[in-house]
Amino acid sequence: MQTYVALLYSIILGEGRRVVMADLKAMAEQLGLKNPRTLVATGNLVFETRATGIAKLEQRLETAFEKTFGRNVVIIVRTAEDWLKLAAGNPFPADSAEAGDQVAVRVMRKPAPADGVAALQAYAAEDEKVASVNVDIWVVFSRERPSSRLLAAMNHKRMGIGTARNWNTVRRLAEMVGSRE
User: What's the pTM?
Assistant: First the structure.
């Protein structure tokens, strides 16, 4: 059995879009996924199943989600090993230790275009940082501004399919999968 992390894109935004994590867990169980568990109410699912292709697993989860909840949601899947590498590759450890809610990673389905990542620098305030690590985009958001231009600039159209998680969530998911390996 292989452990996987599945990240659902924007499931709690907007009227009538909230998904109860117990229902998400039940959906995973109905798919035959073993030991499904969730983390916070933002669509983080950890489970075990036989090793399979990531794209196939993403499609299977997206199809089940649409059937169960009546809407299409992008789901990004990583193996536990890849998730632990992602967490270990955090390019901003000092910022993460100081303010884990201000450091985020946009977990990408495919590598973000290099020119798109470079263009993000133009949207960064003086106290913000951007880095590309492997296929993902790491950002340190400003503590001085309530909203960042970077967040809007990291959209699907510009960067490709992905979903963001803050460092606190990344770390907690790494702890969940690390204890299962």
Answer: 0.91
Amino acid (1-letter code) at residue 124: A
Cα separation, 159 vs 33, whole angstroms = 30
Cβ-contact 116, 158 below 8 angstroms: yes
Amino acid at position 32, single letter: G
In three state form, how does the secondary structure of the chain look?
CEEEEEEECCCCCCCCCCCCHHHHHHHHHHCCCEEEEEEHHHCEEEEEECCCCHHHHHHHHHHHHHHHHCCCCCEEEEEHHHHHHHHHCCCCHHHHHHCCCCEEEEEECCCCCHHHHHHHHHHCCCCCEEEEECCEEEEECCCCCCCCHHHHHCCHHHHCCEEEEEHHHHHHHHHHHHCCC
- Give the whole-angstrom CA distance, residue 66 versus residue 75: 11
Please provide the average confidence, as pLDDT, over all residues in the chain.
89
Please work out, in degrees rounded to the nearest 5, the angle formed at the alpha carbon of residue 16 by the alpha carbons of 25 and 68: 35
4-54 tens-digit pLDDT: 999 998 655 455 667 788 899 999 999 999 999 998 777 899 999 999 899
